[in-house]
Structures are given as C-alpha cells and as structure tokens.
C-alpha cells in the first residue's frame, strides 16, 4: 500500500490509519491521527501531497497533483489542512484545502483551486480550475457556486465529522493489533 517513487516513500505520522487496499505512492506526508480508507489512490509522483492532522480521505477517492512546466514552474501540489473530511469517491487534483472542510461525495476539485477554512462542498460539485472558495460558505452545483453562509451547527459539525473519523480509525487500528 505504500510505494516509493524515485527513492521517496510516503511518510505517516503517529496514529495514521491506511487501509491495506489503498495505494500511496511517492512524496506524501500524512499528519497525526489522519485516515485513508479503502481503495484510495494517491500519487505524489510529479509533485507532493501534504495531508494535515485528523483528516480523513474516504473510500474510492483519488488524490493527484500537477507537474511543473514551462508555463507553471512549480506545478500544483495537493495540500489538505487539518480536520478535513473528504467524502467517498472525491477527486482532488493540484488544489489547496484549508482547515475544517467537508468535501461531499463525488465532488471534483481541480487545479489551482484554493478552499479557505470552514467550507462545505456539496456532493457531486465541480470546482473548476483557478477558483477560490470563501470561508464560511456552502458551495454546490456543477460548476459549483456559493449557495449560502454556513449555520453555527454546520460550522461545529466540521470538527465533529473529523473527530468521528479519528475515533473510527482508532477502532480499526485496535482491531488490527
């Protein structure tokens, strides 16, 4: 499930759970208490992936990035903050996600997108390249549009969702020992 590429192997912090059916390749760093669930494919081959603490990447998601080129000398890495919930079958490509974000099932977030802290992206949403999603809002649709401000309950749920997955991955780690 962990593969080296050009001599670089994914690095996992303390308490990280990676399901044995997932594949992580190359320059990937995963923060403390995060979890990678079944059938996730993450390739840190032509740039890097950084995942923060208490972040969960759910079943069937694909994580990739953009290589450097003449027109884009640094390319676009994939950077995901703390307390982020990535729903089932999400595709993230060369984008930056802040902290306390929920990305709904089947959403696609493309190159050079910045998602600020405290955002919910609805299931099936398409975030086209070069967009910024503002903190404190719900985004839905294809292409996604800002729908409305998040309620206090929704904002609180962002941390609860992440914590629920910390608890679940701890149960999986206990069972595997």
TrEMBL record:
CDD domains: LbH_gamma_CA_like (cd04645). SUPFAM superfamilies: Trimeric LpxA-like enzymes. It comes from the Bacteria. This is Gamma carbonic anhydrase family protein. It comes from Pseudoalteromonas byunsanensis. The lineage of its organism: Bacteria, Pseudomonadati, Pseudomonadota, Gammaproteobacteria, Alteromonadales.
